[in-house]
């Protein structure tokens, strides 16, 4: 349980740092409470997405299924979240973000209880349904940005936005770290009971959120057709990515889904272009201020999540393979704990660094560059646990800087009334990039196997090298992100 203790202390550290700075800037207790609730809500949702990664083998054994069947426990959440996130962001902009946050946390609690009970009873279908219900809580994440922007004082907002953005990575890393030790001590069901408990705490804390937060009075329509087409395109894309390895990249199912993505995406673009109240303003995807950021987000997620996916496989590979450590799930969690710890440590300083000469764009580029260094370290030095842990620490700092600055960049480039929608789009792009990175990395490693034997060390080296090149490309793409007026404004606020 040392892993869980380290993560809890690290998250407590970021909360204390945040509160200390908040007290220096503003003595308003209500705004401090709002920020704390938003951070907890974002953290719990991010935890819920990845917490199954460390216990997939246990779930396969308990349900009597294979690795592909167990992977659906992750895929089900991702698909539901992909559908809910952009729709929730739009609804929050229209009708108030608090309502969406409360609804999402309630669904997370219900889905977590259903999953925990189903795992305990060995009911696979019930567990999948529970994960789908959990996934609908993905809409909480973009609405935390929208609510923060509307109700928090200006001097505190940059730091909260940076912390919220970092929570996507912090929670994701923490979920993978704590699941193994928790399952070893209290059983696999305890993983989902933990999420249920945290979501209830966040739901109780939502009483501190403004009850009469207004939406956009000029935008009350909802684009049902656009929502259906977007959901179909996202589900087809993520389903193809997540199942390509088991189905085969050239299988009829995978190819058919690829065609479906193009058809649904094209129809969605045509509908949104002609609709007076579009679900997503296409300028949020392809506008001058956001196109480079959105592309960089996908590329960064692709490169970074590849490493997070490969490290447990590397650590748990038997030493007879010539490169693994033969670790259990709990020891694997300890090995990759530096990623979550360093990401948590980096999050509070992101906004302060963004106030320096280079601004948020420079912080993002620094994070992407540092990630490339960490991935190159894994490529060259992975023969000892200490070497892997050091590279993981570098990656954690990189994740904290890159993900922490993305939220600031999105807010800088978006009108206040579209914050939820823009944050929802960016969140989905991170998820899509992460899913693609995980699938590509695993495919590269699997391709190194010969005669049905285990993957070779060369496969891991190649995957880490490709990932390093990808995140290096993200740093170059980020150079095209326009500087915004708020960069200078943020620098002035922090210096004061």
Describe the structure.
The chain has 496 residues and is mostly helical. It has three domains: 185 residues, Growth Hormone, Chain: A (Up-down Bundle), CATH 1.20.1250.20; 56 residues; 216 residues, MFS general substrate transporter like domains (Growth Hormone, Chain: A), CATH 1.20.1250.20. It is 79% helix and 0% strand. It has 19 helices and no strands. α4 runs parallel beside α7. It is globular and about 60 Å long. The two termini are 42 Å apart. The C terminus is likely disordered. One of its GO terms (molecular function) is transmembrane transporter activity. It is found in: Cell membrane. InterPro entries: MFS, MFS_dom, MFS_trans_sf. Pfam families: MFS_1. This is MFS transporter.
TL;DR of this structure?
The chain is built from 19 helices and no strands. The protein is an all-alpha fold and 496 residues long.
Spell out the key features of this protein.
transport; MFS; Growth Hormone, Chain: A; 3 domains; disordered C terminus; mainly alpha; transmembrane; 496 residues
End-to-end Cα distance, whole Å, is 42 Å
Structural class: mainly alpha
- As a percent range, the share of helical residues equals over 70%
The CATH topology name of the largest domain reads: Growth Hormone, Chain: A
Task: Please summarize the sheet with the most strands.
Answer: none
- Please state the CA-atom Rg, rounded to the nearest Å: 21 Å
Mean pLDDT: 80
CATH superfamily of the largest domain: MFS general substrate transporter like domains
